[in-house]
Specification:
There is one protein chain. The protein is an alpha/beta fold. It contains 28 helices and 22 strands. The chain is globular, with a radius of gyration of 26 Å.
Length: about 650
């Protein structure tokens, strides 16, 4: 049985269960499941298929989908929505591309898979996430209207009465005209939304002294903002403590389009220093943001920091007109840079930075990591739009975490002594450094007192690296009678029953493990330094003490074979954990990136594409891309017989 037929039969099985009449009609139609769709330079969708005699046939759409979608859709309603789904056949991607160009921060999903539309609509859309969103907009067009509206009607009758639906049939037009008119219509709708619903606040008037703006770039746009910019918050607190006038523009929280950001910066344009921060996945956004800063605040010195500047400083200086890049930990270097710029002195000799002066880029010596993490201030959460994060408190890590109403993040460690080939370490591949349990508990008490939180996510890579510290933490939690649920991450070989029970008794309700593969061969290739049996035992023990076990898996790592995929599926079946996998993605600064660098080609273009590891960027296997993606689908659905 070929892959396409296997997937189609699974689609029909879903339909048979949910919509038996529709499934019967589709199956009886005898349509070849090997239909593929191409979009030529004309921008019009083409369907290529084989008829019953095996001859290749084409269906070329006569209408202009981009124009008709642009005119027919209520784009202002789209702008008000936190999630858009298009159910279409031929023009859905055009709709998506228009929306992405004009509102890149919006969460957008297109379900555009021909016969697979029914499976996608039923299975691929995260309906739990939809339930958390107040405004959801469904566009249903052309041939799937009947099926699409049927799905939506079912949802409305069950969990989702708040759905907004627009159904339209594109008018046929043989002569596409200029797209400028359509773009203007869309932009008008978005501008109307921005003017009435902007989440951007006008900061209080700045006083005399050095005025500093720190910008958090948007990340993981396929999800709502859930995690505060912890590191940027620490830098803001440090600068504020030194007497500087500091504000934070958290674009990741407000998710406003670039037009609104530029308008805000044009009005609030008295900054002396503007810092931009984000992971390497914000590289493309930062490239677009820097020219906006130059236009609106030409007097400001621009400092880049965070994972992006640290992992690809050469590209950052080549493609962004910045003045300084702070590499690695920023607390010491940034403060020195600000004081030096304020005094009009040379940046020469400040460790941990690169800088541009008279067109020349200078690369100073690396900075040193901070050993005493208790000396680092807590993040300046009062400068962040916390309500935006608090409203997205629920996370799908067990029933307690899903009921969270006021969840915030805490980070208690820096560094990692392990060298997994796929993992990027912001603080370098160094020894792990800890905040003291007393310091951590002090922050928790402050969060409960000042922000009335009801859940804590410890975003450490390996919270259990020091068992003694965990025991002391639990002892303090009990002594101070702090009753708040929390969750965190661990390596599989760092836990035992005694430790897990102590964690459970102190409030731990979920524990996430980076299992990554159920194949020992693949774990060795990843340099994971862990075994499949350790992973299985850790998950079993975690569940036995009453903590929700969460696991992550990587699919498509170099060397992946059908056998290693089967082993991972079998592992997931053994531990009864059915979930999606992350694509193996080479991020700059990792051994994996260096290993596959010859496949990457143009680094600037490649890094432009980088996003969350849930999105496909590059095929690192010996499978064809279509085969790999199909195998991932089969593996996630435990369809072992087809792998």
């Amino acid at each position: 049985m070929n892959l396409s037929k296997a997937i189609l039969e699974n689609n029909l099985a879903v339909l048979q269960k949910r919509f038996p009449e529709l499934a019967g009609r589709l199956k009886n139609a005898g349509v070849d499941p090997n239909i593929i769709k191409e979009t030529p330079k004309t921008g019009l969708p083409v369907m290529k298929y084989r008829d019953q005699q095996g001859a290749i046939k084409f269906i070329h759409s006569a209408y202009d989908p981009l124009k008709e979608a642009g005119r027919a859709i209520d784009w202002e309603k789209c702008a008000e929505s936190s999630f858009i789904v298009t159910l279409g056949f031929g023009y859905g991607y055009h709709i998506l591309e228009l929306a992405r160009r004009l509102r890149p921060e919006q969460k957008l999903v297109v379900v555009e898979q021909g016969l697979g539309i029914f499976r996608a609509a039923l299975e691929d859309i995260d309906y739990t996430a939809l339930l958390e969103m107040p405004n959801v907009y469904f566009l249903v067009g052309e041939s799937p209207v009947e099926a699409g509206t049927g799905i939506i009607a079912l949802l409305r009758k069950t969990l989702y009465p708040h759905l907004t639906v627009q159904t339209f049939f594109p008018a046929f037009n043989l002569f596409p005209d200029d797209y400028n008119e359509i773009v203007q219509l869309i932009q008008t709708g978005l501008n109307n939304y921005i003017s009435r619903h902007s989440l951007l606040d006008t900061p209080e008037p700045l006083s005399s002294g050095t005025n500093i703006l720190l910008i958090n770039c948007p990340i993981r746009l396929t999800d709502v903002p859930r995690h505060i910019p912890y590191g940027l918050g620490i830098l803001a607190a440090l600068l504020e403590k030194e007497g500087y006038n500091v504000r934070v523009l958290d674009i990741n929280a407000v998710r406003e389009p670039q037009a609104a950001i530029e308008q805000w910066l044009a009005v609030n344009n008295k900054w002396d220093i503007i810092g931009i921060s984000g992971l390497v996945t914000t590289y493309r956004y930062q490239k677009a943001l820097v020219p906006i800063i130059r236009r609106t605040n030409p007097q400001a010195r621009i400092i880049a920091g965070g994972g992006c500047a640290t992992s690809v400083p050469e590209l950052v200086f080549e493609h962004m007109d910045i003045d300084v890049a702070v590499l690695g930990e920023g607390e010491i270097s940034l403060l020195e840079v600000v004081k030096t710029l304020e005094g009009g002195r040379s940046l020469q000799g400040i460790r941990g930075i690169w800088y541009r002066e008279n067109g020349v880029i200078y690369k100073n010596e690396p900075g040193e990591n901070i050993e005493d993490l208790d000396s680092v201030p807590f993040p300046a959460r009062h400068l962040l739009p916390l309500d935006r994060y608090l409203e997205n408190s629920p996370i799908l890590f067990g029933p307690v975490a899903q009921r969270a109403k006021r969840r915030l993040d805490v980070i208690t460690t820096r560094g990692c002594p392990f060298n997994c080939n796929f993992c990027y370490h912001m603080f370098g591949r160094s020894k792990i450094r800890y905040r003291s349990p007393e310091n951590v508990v002090e922050e928790i008490e402050m969060l409960i007192r000042d922000y009335d939180i009801d859940f804590i996510s410890f975003l450490d890579e390996n919270f259990t690296a020091s068992k003694e510290r965990v025991y002391r933490f639990a002892e303090l939690i009990k002594a101070k009678n702090i009753k708040i649920p929390w969750g965190t991450s661990s390596r599989v070989h760092n836990v035992d029953r005694e430790l897990l029970q102590v964690m459970k008794d102190s409030g731990c309700v979920y524990l996430s493990y980076g299992v990554e593969s159920g194949s020992q061969e693949m774990l060795a290739k990843m340099n994971k330094k862990a075994t499949v049996e350790q992973a299985k035992r850790a998950i079993e023990l975690t569940r036995e003490v009453g903590i929700t076990a969460v696991a992550t898996f990587i699919f498509g790592y170099p060397g992946e074979t059908r056998q290693t995929i089967r082993e991972t599926v079998k592992f997931c079946q053994d531990i009864n954990m059915k979930k999606g996998f992350f694509f193996a993605t080479p991020y700059p600064g990792t051994p994996l990136y260096e290993q596959v660098k010859s496949q990457i080609g143009d680094e600037d273009k490649f890094i432009d594409q980088l996003a969350d590891a849930g999105e496909f960027v590059i095929n690192l296997t010996d499978f064809s891309t279509a085969e790999m993606i199909g195998l991932k689908f089969l593996a996630e659905n435990w369809m072992l017989e087809h792998i």
